[in-house]
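Listing S7. Sequence submitted for prediction.
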Amino acid sequence: MDLSVNPEIAKKNVEAKGEEHITLVFALDNEDFGVDVKAIREIVRVPPFITRVPNAPEYIRGVINLRGNIFPVFDMQMKVGMNHRDLTEEARIVVISWNEIQFGILVDSVREVCTIYDSQIEQAGQISSSMDKKYLLGVAKHNDGRLIVLLDLPVLFDIEEILEEAKTAVAGS
């Protein structure tokens, strides 16, 4: 029995489904959100306490020390405009690494890592949501029927602005 894949069939399959995106799916207030796994450094349990930062925006939960590195932790519910809820045992901090910037996002739970194809994604402009559409890459229709809101992390956290501020601070010193 020949188990090799015919290159022509594989090419047609890719053309039909589109590019694949490996996505970390997490829950916020019983809704599924997704981010590209390439941005994920690690997933950790929420420590017993997160140190508050005075005068920080409300969505900045504080900072944590993770193996000698200090990271800001953003409360995703607050950032996307949801009501704040108490943490449960399933809550996790997803540590993101983006263009040399590292930070944690606090989520209710991590659900899975899944493959999403372009053909499964509806563009953000076609979606009715209370969340600002500029933060969304789109909504994916998972094979099991669930909808996964795909977040644009660089836009959501103004990463380009943070990089510019860091460059200015270095140039000014």
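Caption to Listing S7: primary sequence and predicted structure tokens for the chain studied. The chain is about 20% helix and 40% strand. The domain at 18-172 is CATH 2.40.50.180 (OB fold (Dihydrolipoamide Acetyltransferase, E2P)).
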